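Hi D.,

Good news: the full-assembly prediction came through. Inputs first.
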Amino acid sequence: MKDWLPTLKTKTPEEGYELAVKLARVAVAMTQPDAEIRKKLRPEYATDFDALIASSQVVATHFATVSAANGYWQEQA
Amino acid sequence: MKDWLPTLKTKTPEEGYELAVKLARVAVAMTQPDAEIRKKLRPEYATDFDALIASSQVVATHFATVSAANGYWQEQA
Amino acid sequence: MKDWLPTLKTKTPEEGYELAVKLARVAVAMTQPDAEIRKKLRPEYATDFDALIASSQVVATHFATVSAANGYWQEQA
Amino acid sequence: MKDWLPTLKTKTPEEGYELAVKLARVAVAMTQPDAEIRKKLRPEYATDFDALIASSQVVATHFATVSAANGYWQEQA
Amino acid sequence: MKDWLPTLKTKTPEEGYELAVKLARVAVAMTQPDAEIRKKLRPEYATDFDALIASSQVVATHFATVSAANGYWQEQA
Amino acid sequence: MKDWLPTLKTKTPEEGYELAVKLARVAVAMTQPDAEIRKKLRPEYATDFDALIASSQVVATHFATVSAANGYWQEQA
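Then the structure:
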């Protein structure tokens, strides 16, 4: 995995949120590098509400970081 | 999902809290894009206190971000 | 639910803590709007130590936000 | 429960840590106000390592807040 | 337990990390003061990956605090 | 374990993320120092989605710290 994170800056809060989702997924891929196994796990956790909520928590933590890195996109306000 | 997050700015803390709830839900929808499955899961986790508390935790994390983005709505104080 | 959060400012750290407890509970009520179901769940999670600790975690996250919003009540020190 | 949190300021990091432990426990007491039930639950979770770790997480979150409130006790350094 | 935390300042990030590990363990010891019980629990959770990850989460939260307290050891950079 | 963390500074966000992954793993190794046991646990949690998500959460917490330590790599933006 190379050059997947050149910057934490995004143009909009929405793109910042998408980056947070990506940041959450990369750690999973680093711990389980086998794409086949991840693919097999996906439908399981996507129907497990505990896992869905826990995933959303990881996104929330990264979104805090990305938001701070972008000065909360103040100019948008 | 497009243009759902133009800004992190809200007029009041209450609207900021509602935005935090929305931010928590969007990650779930991104991981489980099938609205029918989400609809089926909803009554299950809404009666599961562990899931309710975990959802509240995600909202808390996003509310911290939204509050910081709004300078804690200081002018309201 | 209207006008329940006019400001994050409180007079004392203690009132800030009470606000954090309220912030934790509102998310639960938004996910499970039926007060009867919440009432039924309450004695169950109030005797479940995992749930009690998880609830305390949500309060801790909100208390961090409320404390920052109040400049940590510096004048009290 | 009255006047249990006059300030977030403490003289030392150690007292700050003790305050964090107190902040973690008060939320539990607010959710389960019956001291008898809490007393009965205590030996159970104190021998459950998942619960011990989760409790330590709550303390960590509060300790972050208390440390920030005290400017990290810079003068001690 | 006395005088175990004179300061949050450490010479290096590495010592800061060790302090974070210590901060995570002290809360466990305060909730379960019996060293014999803690000793008995240790081999159990040290072979339980959920507990190992949860412990690492507590360390991460404390490391954030210790890092901030040390200005992220900027002079090392 | 010596000299594994000379600085929190990294050249790029990507290297910062890799450092966050490392920070998450070191705490596991400190709690379970036996490399053989860790090796045996690895395939188990790498196929357990709850564990994968929880690991990603720890990385997210450390990434917040590393990002702050690097001023969010502003010059990259």
